[in-house]
Amino acid sequence: MEVEKIIQGNRLALARLITQIENQEQAGLAVLDQLFPFTGKAHLVGITGSPGSGKSSLINHLVKQYLRSDTSQSQRVAVVAVDPTSPFSGGALLGDRVRMRDLMSEPRVFIRSMASRGAMGGLARTTGLVTQALDAAGYGTILIETVGAGQTEVEIARLAHTVIVVEAPGMGDDIQAIKAGILEIADILVVNKSDHSGAGNTVRALRNMLELARPEILAADHPSLPSIEGDEIADDPKMWVTPVVQTIATQGDGVDQLLGEIENHKSFLVDQNRRQQIDRFRLVNELNRELQSQLFARWKEVTGQAMFDRVLLALEKREITPQAAILWLLGNQTNGNDLTLSP
Ligand SMILES: Nc1nc2c(ncn2[C@@H]2O[C@H](COP(=O)(O)OP(=O)(O)OP(=O)(O)O)[C@@H](O)[C@H]2O)c(=O)[nH]1
Ligand SMILES: [Mg+2]
């Protein structure tokens, strides 16, 4: 049975399942469904930032640090590297492989690159399902690498409990990109390549931006999380103050501090009951998305393309209003008018 194999840590079965998930194969999704009761334990860490800022190098050292810090040898770590759609991804992927090669043979580590072209129905959704498989397979920490600050990256970052944004000195225009949204999702900021001159300036720039943005960030902090009785946020909720960590990923410098901050954030989430909320937020999102897509598919089947085309034509000709069009399409038109419109 695939389900048992995966729970028992069979890597081949896990790799097979992930491929099936990427290809949206029914068999794989059925296995994943059976694995659901075994999920919800992993700590998901998103690592995002500009191309070449050093995310993969950092992850490489982070994983080693995780393994070193775990004396019981029970800790298992998974890495999911989500490729950009850019034509350069082939090269980036190769680079990642080379950098992570020494981890590939480590039985407590599972590394997987996800090609965006394989992900039908949304990269964020597929990535979410893949992390569920890893979670059920017993990987207690899952690191997810994504490039840039696009919508997909932000969505993938939202999957994570802890989000790390990696910057490098001399980013110039990138500061704008950070301002535009990445700052809100960062739980930890990393200034990598601190062996380069200008690292100090970057740290200062980020600290200033954090100072300026803090009130907004705090206000935007999960505004509408659904809550159930008995697990409200603590009476005196503490705010997380985003730390800025300097690293030199090629040498592993600063990586122990980074791991320390990840652990701090993890404890913060648990202490403040946030972890539960993030998980609920994620489940609600998933449920909404799935409901929408299935309801839409069902509705399309019932309504039929011909009806849709007729209403659209009438709308184009200004024979009906958008509101009336919706009523027609939902089958709620009650005023007796027949939509016998010219072809
Ligand atoms: N000097 C210096 N070079 C670094 C440092 N960290 C990474 N690099 C180099 O920067 C390049 C990019 O590093 P990666 O780890 O592949 O960066 P990345 O963010 O994963 O890149 P993409 O996945 O392609 O976006 C490599 O040549 C690394 O050796 C650092 O701290 N100092
Ligand atoms: Mg990389």
Describe the fold and architecture.
By secondary structure, the protein is α/β, with parallel strands linked by helices. Helix content is 53%, strand content 11%. It has 14 helices and 7 strands. It has a 7-stranded parallel β-sheet, with helices on both faces. The relative contact order is 0.11. Residues 85-94 and 222-230 have low confidence and may be disordered. It binds guanosine-5'-triphosphate and magnesium ion. Magnesium ion (MG) is lined by residues 55-56, 92, 96, 145.
Give a brief outline of the structure:
The protein is an alpha/beta fold. It has helices spanning 2-7, 11-22, 26-35, 55-69, 89-99, 101-104, 123-136, 151-159, 174-185, 199-219, 255-271, 274-303, 305-316, 322-329, and strands at 43-49, 77-82, 109-114, 141-147, 162-167, 188-191, 244-246.
Which key terms come to mind for this protein?
single chain; alpha/beta; seven-stranded parallel β-sheet; 14 helices; about 10% strand; binds guanosine-5'-triphosphate; binds magnesium ion
Helix content class: 40-55%
Basic shape: globular
Number of helices: 14
Poorly predicted runs: 85-94, 222-230
- First and last CA, distance: 56 Å
Coarse structural class = alpha/beta
Small-molecule binders here are:
guanosine-5'-triphosphate, magnesium ion
Along the chain, the helix and strand elements come as: HHHEHEHHEHEHEHEHEHHHH
Radius of gyration: 23 Å
Largest sheet: 7 strands, parallel
Across the major sheet, the strand order is 3-2-4-1-5-6-7
- Strand percentage lies at 5-15%
Mean pLDDT: 82
| Total strand segments | 7
